[in-house]
Design goal:
The structure is a single chain. The chain has helices at 15-27, 40-50, 70-77, 114-121, 131-141, 186-198, 217-225, 240-249, 275-282, 295-298, 311-323, 325-339, 344-355; strands at residues 2-6, 32-36, 57-60, 82-86, 98-103, 125-128, 146-147, 164-171, 205-212, 232-236, 252-255, 286-290, 306-308. It is built from 13 helices and 13 strands. It is 38% helix and 18% strand. The chain has two domains: 2-148, 3-Layer(aba) Sandwich (Rossmann fold), CATH 3.40.50.11930; 164-341, 3-Layer(aba) Sandwich (Rossmann fold). The chain is an alpha/beta fold and 357 residues long. The longest helix is centred in the C-terminal third of the chain and has 15 residues, at 325-339.
C-alpha cells in the first residue's frame, strides 16, 4: 500500500507529532509511506527529538497547504491507497481509496454543517488518542470513533534514583493547539514547589524538562530568573535519550495541565492523554498528576500514583511520598508495570489492524 500521512503541527514537535510520526515509522516497515510536508528540517527535528527512524519514509510536498489549489490536491490524493490525516477540526476531501481521520484533542467548538456531513460519510475510520478525546469527538461529529493510545516505549536507565520531582512539557507563551497560555502550567508547579521549600522541604530538587522555541525564549528566561534562589533546574530541548536519563533519576513526576481552567467549557485545556506521564512511570517515577483529561486513564489514584484537584492535594500527596519510602517504592513498581500496557508493540498492532479495514 501507498500511504500518505499529514500532521498540520509537524513543526511543533509535541506529543501529537510523536504519535503521527511513530505511526509513519511503523507503517513504513511494510508499506510505502509519504509524509506531506515542505520542510525537511522539521521532520529531522522530530526524528532527533523522539529517536525515530525515517529512512523508509518519503517527504513529499504538502498538498494540504492553503497554497495548493483544490483540484491539484484532489488529483494528487488519487494515487494513495490510504491517507491518515490528523484533524484540526477540518475534514479533507480526497480521492484516496481509504481515509483515516485522527483526533488529538476535544473539539467542542466545531459546528458540523451539511457539507461536513457529506465529507464525514467518506471517511473509512475515525480514531482518537484517548477515551477523553473520544467522548467529545463522538458528540461533536455524531460518530463512533476508536481509541488507539499513543505509543510509549520505556527506556529506563540503570541509574541511582535521586530526590527529584520532575515535570516534562513544551514551554509555550501561547500553545499552538489550544491558544492557551501556560498550557502545561509550569509556573503553577514552580510556585507549588517554592511553597513546599518555604515551609521546610529540604534536599529535593524540582527539574523542568522543556522544549522552547526561539519566539518564546525571552519569556522563558524571565521564568528562570524567578526561580534563581530555589533548587529548581531547567533542561532545555533535550533529546529523547537525554530525557530518559532524567526520567530514570526522578522519584516523583508532576503534571498540572488543565488546572484552574473551565474544563466544562474548554476541555481542550486539559491534557488530552499524557505521554510524558507514562514515560515517567516507565522509569519508575511516581506520578502525582491532575485529576483531569487523559491523566485519569493512566493513573488510578492510590494504585500507580496519585491524582489531585487542588494545589494543597498536590503538595500533601507529594509530601506523603517523600516521607514514606515504602509507599514510594511500592507505587514506583506499580507505575512501571502500568506503563508497559502503552508500549509501541501494542500501538503497532492496533495501527495495522486499523489500516486493514
Amino acid at each position: 500500500m501507498t500511504i500518505g500521512i499529514y500532521d498540520p503541527y509537524l513543526d511543533d514537535v509535541g506529543g501529537g507529532e510523536k504519535y503521527m510520526m511513530t505511526l509513519a515509522n511503523v507503517l513504513s516497515k511494510e508499506h510505502s509511506v509519504e509524509v506531506f510536508w515542505d520542510k525537511k528540517e522539521d521532520l529531522e527535528s522530530v526524528s532527533k527529538r523522539f529517536s525515530l527512524d525515517f529512512s523508509n519514509v518519503k517527504l513529499v510536498p504538502n498538498i494540504f497547504s492553503s497554497n495548493t489549489p483544490f483540484l491539484k490536491r484532489l488529483l494528487t490524493t488519487k494515487k494513495y491507497d490510504a491517507i491518515v490525516y490528523l484533524s484540526d477540526g477540518s475534514i479533507p476531501t480526497v480521492l484516496a481509496k481509504k481515509l483515516f481521520i485522527h483526533f488529538q484533542q476535544p473539539l467542542p467548538y466545531v459546528r458540523v454543517d451539511g457539507k461536513t456531513k457529506l465529507k464525514l460519510a467518506r471517511v473509512t475510520k475515525f480514531f482518537c488518542n484517548s477515551a477523553f478525546t473520544k467522548s467529545y469527538i463522538d458528540k461533536t461529529y455524531g460518530l463512533e470513533s476508536d481509541v488507539i493510545y499513543p505509543p510509549v516505549d520505556t527506556h529506563a536507565k540503570k541509574v541511582r534514583k535521586e530526590n527529584i520531582i520532575l515535570t516534562v512539557g513544551r514551554f509555550r507563551v501561547r500553545d499552538v493547539l489550544t491558544g492557551n497560555s501556560d498550557f502545561k502550567k509550569q509556573s503553577i508547579l514552580i510556585d507549588a514547589f517554592k511553597d513546599m521549600v518555604n515551609k521546610g522541604l529540604k534536599n529535593w530538587r524540582f527539574v523542568l524538562a522543556v522544549s522552547v522555541r526561539e519566539a518564546d525564549e525571552k519569556a522563558f528566561e524571565k521564568l528562570k530568573e524567578e526561580t534563581s534562589s530555589f533548587p529548581i533546574e531547567f533542561l532545555v530541548n533535550k533529546t529523547n535519550e537525554q530525557l530518559w536519563q532524567i526520567y530514570s533519576k526522578a522519584k516523583i513526576y508532576w503534571h498540572g495541565a488543565g488546572f484552574g481552567e473551565d474544563l466544562e467549557k474548554y476541555p481542550q485545556y486539559a491534557e488530552h492523554f499524557g505521554i510524558s506521564t507514562v514515560e515517567a512511570m516507565g522509569a519508575g517515577a511516581v506520578p502525582v498528576v491532575i485529576n483531569a483529561g487523559g491523566q485519569k486513564e493512566i493513573v488510578a489514584d492510590g494504585k500507580e500514583g496519585f491524582l489531585w484537584n487542588r494545589l494543597d492535594e498536590l503538595k500533601e500527596k507529594t509530601e506523603l511520598l517523600i516521607t514514606d519510602a515504602k509507599l514510594l517504592d511500592h507505587l514506583s513498581k506499580m507505575a512501571a508495570n502500568k506503563a508497559k500496557t502503552f508500549g509501541k508493540d501494542r500501538f503497532t498492532k492496533e495501527i495495522y489492524e486499523l489500516v486493514k479495514v
